[in-house]
Amino acid sequence: MGIFRGHTTTIRSDKISNFTVTTAEYGASVAEILGTTRISPNVIYYDDFTAHEHRKSQKSGKGGRSKTTTVTYTYTVAVILALCEGPISGIGKIWKDKNVFTYPNDSIGLTLFSGTDDQQPWAYVTGKHPNKALSYSGLAYMAGVIDLGDSGSMASYNFEVKGKLLDTGDGVDVNPADYILYILDKIGLSGVTIKGIDNYRTYCKEADFLISTPSDSTDAKSAREIINDIANLTNAYVFWSNDSFKIVPRADRAVGNWQPDKTIRYNLTPDDFIPQSGGACISYSRKDSSEIYNRISVEFLNRSNGYEKEIVNYQDNDDIKEFGVRQASTTTAHYIYTKTRAVKLAEELCRKNKYERVKYTFKLDWAFCRLEPGDLVMLNDPLMGISDQPAMIDSVTEGADGVLTFTAISRAKGVYSQAEYDVHANERPLIDFNPDPGTCEPPMIFQPPALMTNADNEVWIGTWGKNENWGGCNVWVSDTNEYYQLLGTIDYRARYGTLVSTLYADGTELEMTVGYGTFTSVDLQSAKNGDTALYIDGEVMSYQTAMLLDNGNWKLSGLIRGQYGSEAAYHTEGTQIARCDEAFLKSGLSNSYVGHTIYFKLTAFNVFGGQEQSLADVQAYTFKPQSVQILPPDVEILNVEKMSSSIRRYWWKYTYPEPNDVAGFILKYTQGKELNWETGIPVQEGLITTQPYETQTVRQGTHAIMIKAVDANGNESKNFAYCLLEMGDLLQENVLFDKDFSTDNFADLTNNGVILSDGYVHAVNSEKMWHETGRKFWSKPTAMMWDSSFQSYIATGEFIAPASGQFWLETDIEGPAIVYYRIDMADAAWVESQESAAAWDADETVVWDESNDLWKQWSDKVQVRAGAIIQIRIVAKNSSMQETIIKGLHAYIDVPDRQEHFEDLEVPATGLELPITTPNYYTTAVHIDSVQSGTAQRYPKILSRTPCRIALLDSSGNQVAGTVDITWQGFVNETM
């Protein structure tokens, strides 16, 4: 029986381990929906991707003895889908791939959070992941555990969002008037008046021009662009008039209860127009017949068809019969979501195109200053064949001569009112545009402190005119008093005069005469800010209180002295003093003018800009400018990135001046944390002109890195930006053991010379001369010349080789000397220890004594073994001509190096011993690669090298906890 026993087969599907999402975008802008539209969401959270196992068994074979089990998986995931800025009114339809649902729907598995300011976090996340539970205040989103089926990727979702302002329209779309008001409110202009807004709202309502935020618009737009788009769509003017906005519908046909304005403001005749070039009263341009389109297409988003783009057409059949089809380019109107409104827009565009084919241009004087865009006028010019032609003002431009230039578009003839205004009822005043401007008063010319200027060698020039028709002047400059060039224009009367009495350096009030103008009192803070700055003979000061005296002079008190880098000084009676403001022409002069007498001429013109004086008719005023160089702006921020063991990358934030005369930047560093530009060491020769800048110049240890900008004249910015850099030890490409005998005044170098104040080993002078260069004693009273006799001396030192390798010396010796060396255990046997490590056999150690002549003169590298005792001897010869001075002595051994790297080491405030695995190690370098310590600065400190312990310091030098990356470098100390 057992031979025919059945069996079970299991078929298992592959299990998906990762969730795939394609609609998550970091940094995406959050849309704000006005009206109703369709948008795609952005996944801002997902968690708990879970596989659910499903088993299905089926019997087979004779008697059903065999069984096949199929194992499949379906998946779920918890997601939050961000929609838009809240609060919103609700959700309509939901598109999930090709399926459409109406919210709420249990098969969707999503819940709406409308985006109120006080909304609570999703209860699911609060219960399962409380540390991730966020309320997302003000953000409308959908949240739920969604079924992914047997796929590890999320379906494509779209949502019909019922946004804001639905009550202003039909409950679905928004009235454009309220849309515009909402936009202005969002940018802080809620208090601005919009004249005509109620009329515009009524027009949009009656014309059924209701809109919603375009669903396909993902790019942010300025408020100005949005408002202009809506105005163009609804055929309206929006402009600024008399400290308020104004909006005027351009429609000329009644719609529902709304009636267009048919009021004619002026009935214009040739008596009103100011002739244009050629003598014409009215000029006009007319569209070519080919541009009079009779078929208009509008692209809109059809809400009833899933918000798909569709195109509707409107055509003038009568015109098509006569002239054929003239198709206009398609107008994009994605604010519109119904076909009916799209057709109405197309009809309005067709009518506008037909009846606004002519544009008129004409000029009027200031008697017609009431005219604004949207106003209607009646045009009459018999010579041009224009009679009672209604036109709507499209634009107004004011010329420098006060003449107003208008453009107007033609309107269909019909029933219009009589002219509202009649400029002929009264005698029109005659405006004289050519009055005599008079002359300029003697100017005040000076150079303020550099901190007040915007250019090098800046000169300020101010003047005024007594004639009431004086409108300003042009300022001309010359270095020969023959050939003048235009320097600039003065448009305002300057306030300057002279001191009535002496002003002492500690004075707090003054009295001055002034040719023109008044002064206004300010508070103390405004005076400290320099809002009432005065210039007097090199000093800048500001006043608080201004009082007009009975004699016509001004008393200015509460003086803040010595501003903008100037110093309070003594000023005598009669010194010129000026109120520093926009009335002064401020102009930088080229360096060629500095130190030389230059000449200024001021040619006055009248209030209309005409009747300018001739250069030959005005007086020249002299001035000798000095060099006043404006410093380049300060560097704002300096940052550093640690690239490798020796390379550092620097970059900085800097706002270039206008005009830009910055030639480059200087980087300096100081050892430690001292911020001192003067003692800083340049990182490179010359200027740095590009960033980021990489260098290996800065050595190991803690450094302060500083930066200044330098202009084309070599001027450095006043202040420097800086960062503190902790390099740690500099890692070596080839690890060396270094015995430095010069440390601690050659403490490990036995010698019978003498160590002087320079820290070097010198020979003893038997003639009792000074050993410092150039300073000697007379040896005896009768000596006719200097004597010197520098005795010979011997200096010896030794050390034990900690590891095997090549040994060599580096010496810095001045004068005659021979360098020897010898190695103890040089002939000893090299054996293998139990640990298979090389070691010296102690039984064969050679013992030195003074008679053992094993010294060799140093010439080249030699091989040494661990534990060898290496002696060095320097023999200084006796000399009467040159002294032997030992300045430096280094012994090196090229040892096999080890390097270990540790990442994310948690360093407690008490310090941490590095977990070095190298046995019997000797530390040559410890390098801090990076410090991860939040927003606070951290600086590494090496507590000990063997064992190797480190600590972290804060900016005050206190040991603190933190996380670091460390690279340790060293070698195996075989003698341990």
From TrEMBL:
InterPro entries: J_dom, Rcc01698_C
Residues annotated as domain Tip attachment protein J: 219-394
Domain named Rcc01698-like C-terminal: residues: 502-577
Name the record gives this protein: Phage tail protein
